[in-house]
Design a protein that fits this description.
About 10% of the residues lie in helices and about 45% in strands. The chain has four helices and 26 strands. The protein has a five-stranded antiparallel β-sheet with strand order 6-5-4-1-7.
Length: about 350
């Protein structure tokens, strides 16, 4: 069996400059292989339509099984946030522009974001080759640099270090059909209500979670019910070793009939997921939320996917009563605050505040 990876293709009755179309096949459709040609396959559809198709337009059963295993592995993963695909885009088996791809999501498709990865951005056709020729070139270049360094006069100034690689973010996503894969982060928009997105203040709102609702007779929303949100924001930059650096709670003012900031924690190094729950209080329960931060400077990066996670995470929890947000839970210790990544690297430590 093979599976169509192209958007849509036609089966032809023969491999020739002039041929007739036999049937149309679309992305994801299974085909039974009847005959192998040099660059073409003779296949049969589930409707018993038989014709030739180019090999580059399909993936084999092994690649298809890899996508099935990826979906099974992450079927129970918690959802970070919902998002919308900007335009047609393929799901990849691992992060990277040149990794294997299969499912084609249409523009405006809804997806669930599961995990973020940061990897170096590499131009198409370069960077990931593992051929012997590429290895030989690297070894030759290393030898040449070694010889050059050994023969360089002592007075010659050392060359500046190469700039760090440009990073890009990828997201592991799941669509409503359960199809799972990686797509480029710049090609999806996080689902954030416009009513609170306007308060992003130049940052990216990477998550918005409804925590409560209030009734305002003067509100223009359906039934005069207004949702209140916990939001998380981050810098307009890819490749960060954390998911967000600000938590902000928006509550609805019954006096001014608008959103107001009830709580802000910034800047921190926060990690998904953000969990919404109910906390026990004297008269029942109150809306609550929690998220993770790193316990120390140690952040582990998965070598296969590039996903960053705190090595020893701490969970910070808060409850909200009316418009008051209060910290709760067993972890009441100081929260590490980092004013900027550059400052962090210069000082080598974090300022601790309560």
């Amino acid at each position: 069996m093979v599976y169509v990876s192209a958007r849509q293709m036609y089966l032809h009755d023969r491999v020739a400059a002039v041929s007739n179309r036999v049937a149309e096949v679309v992305n994801g459709q299974p085909l039974e292989v009847l005959e192998h040609g040099r660059r073409f396959l003779r296949v049969k559809t589930q409707k018993n339509e038989i014709g030739w198709i180019e090999q580059h337009a399909v993936i084999d059963a092994r690649e298809y099984q890899a996508f099935e295993e990826l979906a099974a592995q992450h079927r129970q993963d918690p959802v970070v946030v919902g998002a919308t695909v900007r335009d047609d885009i393929y799901l990849h088996i691992t992060p990277g522009r040149e990794t294997g791809h299969f499912y084609l999501l249409p523009a405006n498709a809804k997806v669930q974001l599961l995990a973020r990865s940061s990897i170096p951005k590499v131009a198409p056709g370069s960077g990931f080759s593992k051929s012997a020729l590429a290895a030989e070139k690297r070894e030759s270049a290393t030898a040449a640099r070694t010889i050059a360094l050994s023969t360089r006069p002592a007075t010659e100034p050392a060359k500046p270090e190469a700039p760090p690689p440009v990073m890009e973010d990828w997201w592991l996503v799941r669509d409503p059909q359960g199809r799972t894969g990686w797509l480029l982060g710049s090609r999806v928009d996080v689902d954030v209500p416009d009513t609170v997105a306007v308060y992003s203040e130049g940052q990216r709102m990477v998550g918005a979670y409804e925590i409560a609702k209030v009734t305002d007779p003067e509100a223009t929303t359906p039934d005069h019910t207004v949702p209140e949100y916990v939001t998380v924001l981050g810098p307009q930059k890819a490749g960060l070793p954390f998911d967000f650096d600000q938590v902000r709670v928006f509550t609805w003012s019954l006096r001014h009939h608008r959103y107001e900031t009830a709580f802000r924690l910034h800047p921190i190094e926060g990690f998904f997921p953000v969990k919404i729950s109910q906390a026990p209080v004297k008269d029942g329960t109150a809306p609550a939320f929690s998220f993770q931060i790193a316990r120390s400077e140690d952040v582990s990066v998965d070598a296969a996917t590039g996903i960053s996670r705190p090595a020893n995470p701490r969970t910070l929890s808060y409850e909200m009563i009316d418009t008051q947000v209060k910290r709760i839970g067993p972890d009441m210790g100081p929260i590490p605050i980092v004013h900027s990544l550059d400052e962090k690297h210069e000082k080598g430590e974090k300022k601790k505040v309560r």
